[in-house]
Amino acid sequence: MAGFYAARSRTIPPPPWTNFAPPFSEVLRARSLLEPSLAREAAVHASAADLEELRLCAVNGRKADSWRRYETWDNRFHRAVATATQNRVLLLLFDNLNNVRRAMAWGRRRDGSPRPEPDHHSFEQHDQIVAAIRDRDPDAAEKAMQIHIAAVGRSLLESGK
After folding, report:
1. pLDDT of residue 96
2. Of 14, 52, 102, 129, which one has the greatest count of Cβ atoms within 10 A?
């Protein structure tokens, strides 16, 4: 990433999340705008390797034996969608937004379970996103991601973040 900025200037800007604490609603709104578009683009541009990475992330997220492991696979899943766009600018936008999101998620309360329940909403939603991207259906991929981000927002609001 340093090379990306170095081509335009000699100074790499500091990451915006080091002293930036936006309201949860702003992060959710940004995700709602960006991530469905990434899924749409991924449905058009994903390589076979991208499709395999998405499948792997969905499968391993479902198998995670702790919330920490699940969140690792969840982060990797969402980044794989961004990577599958084959667009470095979109990937850079996603990475910046994801770093803000991850900084805000630290210390989030859980429901007391050691891992996601077998019927955790994200499992089926991730499967639907993967299927739409694999089927090269941009409309379905965008819609599936909209549904997923909205469900994540509702879940976080209900849990008190």
Report:
1. 93
2. 129
